[in-house]
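Cont'd.
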Amino acid sequence: MSEEKQEKHGEFEREPVPASKTRGLKAFVGMYAGEHCAGTELMIGPLFVAAGVSAFDVVFGLLLGNLLAVLSWMFLCAPIAVRARLTLYYQLEKICGRNLVTLYNLANGVMFCFLAGSMITVSATAVGVWFHFPMPGLNDLLPNSIGWVLAVLVVGGLISVIAAWGYDTVSRVANIAAPWMVLLFLAFGIVGMRQFTEVTGAEVNSLSSLWELCTTHIWQGGDPLPGQVKFTFWHVTFFAWFANMAMHVGMSDLSVLRFAKKSWHGIASASGMYVGHFMAWLAASILYALQLHIDPANTDVLPGPLAYRAAGVAGLICVIVAGWTTANPTIYRAGLAFQAIMPNKSRFAVTIGAGLLATFAGMFPAIAMRLLGFVALYGLILMPMGAVVFADFWIFPKLGLKQYYAEHRGLKVNWAAGAAWLVTLAICVALVKSGNPIFQLYFVALPGWFIATALYIVLSKLTQKGEA
Amino acid sequence: MKKIAETVSYLALVLLVAAPVLFYSEKISLQANKYLMLTATMVWFTSALCWIGRGEKSCQPTPKATADPP
């Protein structure tokens, strides 16, 4: 048996995970904390400041949004994961049919490539500190120098080759880097705070004086920077909730949590949310707010220079490692998704192809500089399939509808699921285009989930008519 | 040997946090803070290589593939 087949067999890709292979809470706490302390956190925090958030909105919005994300993992994803103990792919194949899953994989793979591209962008900003080439500004959409293009090419090329050679080495480096990286993000925050007290002359000796500094200098609120969307409390809340929508509401983490002993182990996601999506976002935003305070004309969101000013070479290493360790598995996953579409191509070739696409995307700062919108879009595109899995698992038995309909009928495409996915996306796009503020890209996934669930149930009632 | 490497690693992490805290409390300069953080980084990666992930399975069950191919 080839190594690859053994690996697949060991991962129970087409069978439920047996009880003997399940793992305790601790394994998931470490995994989530490492996974969500990534290179992109260094972009998202500053972009909040660029979006004109106030201290109350960002702190309490993140507390609430991250809580909602953890609850989504605990009560939407984990209960199905520990009952079915199947990968998302296999569960979707049983529900939707092979061809529809292929389309899902294509969408997923492309989104992964763009996401990895933004991570490569982050790493390349550290290279710019050493080589002093012009780097993109906040509103740049296209690459603005040969040096930038070369830096992205070198960083992206290296990441792609390593991702294609094997996941294990990268996984080990990521495991080693995770605790160091978390503490370095914390260090960014502490150093940034100290620098703020220096440049403002503020005295911080109590919680109230700290809050005063936060409200008057760091997250002042007011108008966003030109070209940015104004973020309120609800924007921050929904962004934090839906930043990983593909993973919890979209059910991608069925593949991970199927190894959990209990469904409440989904609470482990709190480590990732409150370390990566609270502490790291706030720390990174402090560094950017400091840059704006010192020079209001310098609106560039460049993690490399930001980290270098706070932590020197260690900060630059953090930016490179943070981008690299998260871009690598993302490219690897994109390769897996594409390989499902082209099963005759080797995983090496497909992963290199995915890496090249990610590298090309990384050259365009538009994705990284518009990361808040891209992350919301990414979750939105994959969310309806999570709603389909949810309805199929919990609601169908109660309505007397057939679960796993594609498997039951031997279908290549379950049109009810396909239409629920695509029609939901069309409706959500129309709602966003309507210009109504309550249907902005950051919020529309919430009504979208209910639309997808309702559509899948109604369409399944029609397609399964007379079969009960 | 593994125990020593583990202890050194944890000390490096303590230094990584202690340096910015010392800078915050005005005990050291920003430059000194940067040197200490770089030292802690090098010590962490050198020592952690000796014990993290050696002879044990990754805590991550799969490469977190959203849609693994069959």
